[in-house]
Design a protein that fits this description.
This protein is mainly β. The protein has one helix and 28 strands. The radius of gyration is 20 Å and the shape is globular.
Length: about 375
């Protein structure tokens, strides 16, 4: 992500104003589809999109149980060089995000999982994220941000032989364990989960507490309780941008989720299109311009097919309605969950192509036309 500026701050403030704002015409998008052509034999996952339109991809072969990480750039899908033998001949690999310099988080492992290692890949060069601190092994990696910092989970073993997890951040060979809030072990393994990381090293996630679960940001490895939406007992944070704006959802007892954006201690709940009955949904991604993406369910119970959403300048849109009318994929694409949005406005979304067998999940990258 790029650094903040006065114009970005003004745009973000506009987003938070839900009344008295003249609405600009909504954007329209062109679709790029991943996975529909081989969904019967393979599963394709987009794990990150950067501001240059480069895309981190993982392809799982359902026939032989193997996987491989790729970088998509300018219409070409290329396997990540220099990683095929890091866990022995024909190592498996999976991507885990990409930054704006094209550096990719990647896990490499043998078919029997006796070898499992995590790296940051940069044009064929790899930086090892590990070994873990004494008593821990690195279980997952996510990122990197533009400073090549990553987050993930570490696995350890209790004296009785049982396993546990803790969350970490890593940069330049240094691991930092992220503590949960007090009594955090009530809700998550290890007490917390880290989900988002900005370019200043501020981390967003969630932790259990004695009174429920809470959205959390970690600043200099200190856990700060974000609180929760007014009148709603629980909150969970997703992504964080470089302005410190966090998105996620608050949960009403009984299961209904309410999407929010949070900044400097203030929760603002986000509207959901109303089809005549209460809705449930969540915000998953946010960029430095304040564009937010997520999804909604058709009812308060959180069941049934989801619908991908975009919040922009105080308005909310069903992303399916924003596909360019003459896009050849428009008649077949059903966008269910919008997962991330880049500074350039590209959206990564999970959905279905109605032509695929059993409506298998496919992934789309939406590029704005205007």
């Amino acid at each position: 992500m790029n650094r903040s500026s006065v114009s970005i701050v003004m745009f973000a403030a506009t987003l938070l104003s839900s009344s008295g704002v003249a609405q600009a015409a909504p954007p329209t998008y062109r679709l790029t589809e991943f996975g529909a052509d081989d969904s019967a034999s393979k599963a394709t996952y987009v794990t990150g999109v950067n501001a240059l339109g480069e895309i981190a991809v993982t392809v799982y072969d359902n026939g032989n149980g193997t996987s491989q990480a790729y970088l998509w750039r300018s219409g070409t899908l290329t396997s990540l060089s220099g990683i095929s033998n890091l866990c022995g001949p024909n190592s498996n690999s999976s991507s885990a995000g990409i930054n704006n310099f094209g550096h990719v988080g990647v896990s490499v492992y043998s078919s029997d999982f006796t070898c499992f290692k995590n790296y940051i890949w940069n044009q064929g060069k790899v930086t090892f994220v590990g070994p873990g601190p004494t008593g821990y092994t690195v279980e997952s990696v996510s990122g990197p941000n533009d400073r090549d910092e990553v987050i993930g989970s570490l696995a350890g073993t209790n004296p009785d032989g049982s396993g546990f997890q803790v969350q970490y951040s890593w940069q330049n060979g240094q691991f930092t364990i992220l503590p949960p809030l007090p009594n955090g072990n009530m809700y998550y393994p290890g007490g917390a989960t880290a989900t988002g990381l900005n370019d200043f090293g501020v981390i967003a996630g969630s932790s259990g507490t004695a009174g429920g679960f809470r959205g959390v940001i970690w600043v200099n490895s200190k856990a700060i309780d974000m609180g929760t939406c007014p009148g709603i007992p629980n909150s969970a944070a997703g992504m964080i941008n470089n302005l410190g704006m966090v998105v996620g959802s608050c949960q009403v007892n009984g299961g209904t989720f309410v999407p929010f954006v949070w900044q400097a201690g203030t929760f603002t709940t986000l509207p959901i299109p109303n089809n005549g009955q209460p809705q449930s949904g969540s915000a998953l991604g946010i960029n430095d311009l304040g564009q937010i993406v997520g999804y909604q369910y058709p009812n308060s119970a959180g069941t049934g097919p989801a619908t991908a959403l975009l919040w922009e300048r105080g308005a909310v849109y069903d992303v399916n309605t924003l596909i360019a009318p003459n896009d050849p994929l428009k008649p077949y694409a059903v966008l269910l969950v919008a997962e991330e949005v880049t500074l350039g406005g590209q959206i990564g979304a999970m959905g279905q192509d109605t032509r695929t067998p059993n409506n298998s999940s496919v992934f789309y990258v939406l590029t704005p036309e205007n």
